[in-house]
Amino acid sequence: MDLKERIGQRITELRKAKKLSQQKFANEADIERTFLTHIEKGRKNISVGTLEKILTALEISLKDFFDSEIFSNGKKRK
C-alpha cells in the first residue's frame, strides 16, 4: 500500500470513528465531497493545506494522525 492509500485509509478510519458521513465531513473540512472520496481511496495526492483542513475537522494533530500502525511499515511502535 502506498502513502496516498495509507493517508486515505487513516482519514476514513478517523472520520468513521466520529460517525460522520463523507458529505458532512467534507463540509466541515471545506473540501468537495468527490475530492474527499478520491483522497480516501488513495487516488489523489493532497497538499499540506488540504491535510491541515482535514486534520482540523478531525480535531487531531499531525503527530497523532501519523502515529498509527498504518504508517509503521511493519515495524512495532515504541
Describe this structure in words.
The chain has 78 residues and is mostly helical. Helix content is 60%, strand content 0%. It has five helices and no strands. It has helices at residues 3-17, 22-29, 33-40, 48-58, 62-66. α2 packs across α4. The mean pLDDT is 93.
Keywords:
single chain; 78 residues; mainly alpha; 5 helices; 60% helix; 0% strand; globular
> Uncertain runs with pLDDT below 50, 5 residues or more?
none
Order of helices and strands: HHHHH
Spatial gap, N to C terminus: 22 Å
What's the number of extended β-strand segments? 0
Q: Helical stretch count?
A: 5
Integer average pLDDT: 93
Please identify the structural class as seen in this structure: mainly alpha
| Largest sheet properties | none
Shape: globular
Portion in beta strands:
under 5%
How large, in whole angstroms, is the Cα Rg?
Answer: 12 Å
Question: How much helicity do the residues have?
Answer: 55-70%
Layout of helices and strands:
Blueprint: H1 3-17, H2 22-29, H3 33-40, H4 48-58, H5 62-66
Helix pairs in contact: 2-4
In short:
The protein is mostly helical and 78 residues long. It contains five helices and no strands.
